[in-house]
Specification:
Order of helices and strands: EHEHEHEHHEEEHEHEHHHHEHEHH
Structural class: alpha/beta
Shape: globular
CATH architecture: Alpha-Beta Barrel
Oligomer: single chain
Radius of gyration: 21 Å
Strand content: 15-25%
CATH superfamily: Luciferase-like domain
Strand order of the largest sheet: 1-2-3-4-7-8-9-11
Distance between the termini: 35 Å
Number of domains: 1
CATH class: Alpha Beta
Length: about 375
Amino acid sequence: MALTFGFWSEQETQVGHSYSRRLHELVDEVRLAEKVGFDCVALSEQHVALGGISSSAPEVVFGYLAAVTSRVKLRAAVTLMPQRINHALRSAERLAVTDILSNGRMEFYGGRANTTIAMRAFNVDPNETLAQMEEGLALLKTAMRQDIFTFDGKYYQIPPRQLVPKPLQKPHPVIGIAATSERSHLWAASQGFAVMSSNIYQGWEAQQKLIDAYQKNWKCDAEGPLQRPRIGIPLFIGIGKTDEQAKADYAGPLMHYAKISTDAYPRLAAIADDYKYMGESVPSMERAANDWDYLVNESATTVCGSPDTVIRQIEKFEAMGIDEVLLHMDSVPHEKIMEAIDMVGRYVIPHFNDGNNVVRPTEEILGQIRLMRTQKQ
């Protein structure tokens, strides 16, 4: 199967720029991504965030994107599942409506939240986010699959009710989770869910361990939409005409993002048992934020260089057994993002999807022709 490519954005807005302008720029980026061959568009959900990240209402954006796109899948990546941030039944309703309006193009990935800023703003207990995510996804699935449903859990107790309307996709859109721990990979596998996997900058061995744990333990949910495991990896990308140009344009933003995106992890590890495992990644996170060579070559999170270099880097992830890459195109001005989308669509995606349809040097083709003539004699 061809590798799936996703455009992933958090609507990061540059200092001195307008949030409203950034939203309209995002629409232009999505439309170009669809045009040049990306398979899906993934938007994260972040609340009261610092540093310019402004994707606070992706469900609203999806409703708009449904009208201005026609082919790409639209993926919540991820919807935050703590009950005080998103009631799971409301998430099911929003998913169903946008699935209808997009003609069956929605996908739903849930997550537990990973910033103390958002948790405290919504009065969320970090010790309950994991359980609420798992129970919330169970409710989401039940409400979409059954005509009249009821649910009796620790956090959700719902008498016989009907989800109105139901999603267009049957039994429902693909469900997955964002996972950084082995435990969450195993849980997703046990449910027959998809997974968006991250090793939190800990490197190739750690990433391969997570992939193997998920794939080896995946169990098909006979009533679900997936018939085989689906594992994707979010990758931070910088791309330019040359390796030198890509590094000059992206080294600063990518290292800065490594710093701010994991800033809350040490605090979470200290205040909640379910987040303790994050403490083990602190040395790797600090190194990724300060050591360019480690970030690009050893952390198994980032690709950067010319199109040929990026292709070689993504091939390493493909060899690990992944099904899709979500390319994080953010942290730089809109013009650079548009340029990156175009370069990925022009050079990178065709290499993985239809290599025989990519123009190669004449001498390379003639060499193969001459070799075949020799072999026939």
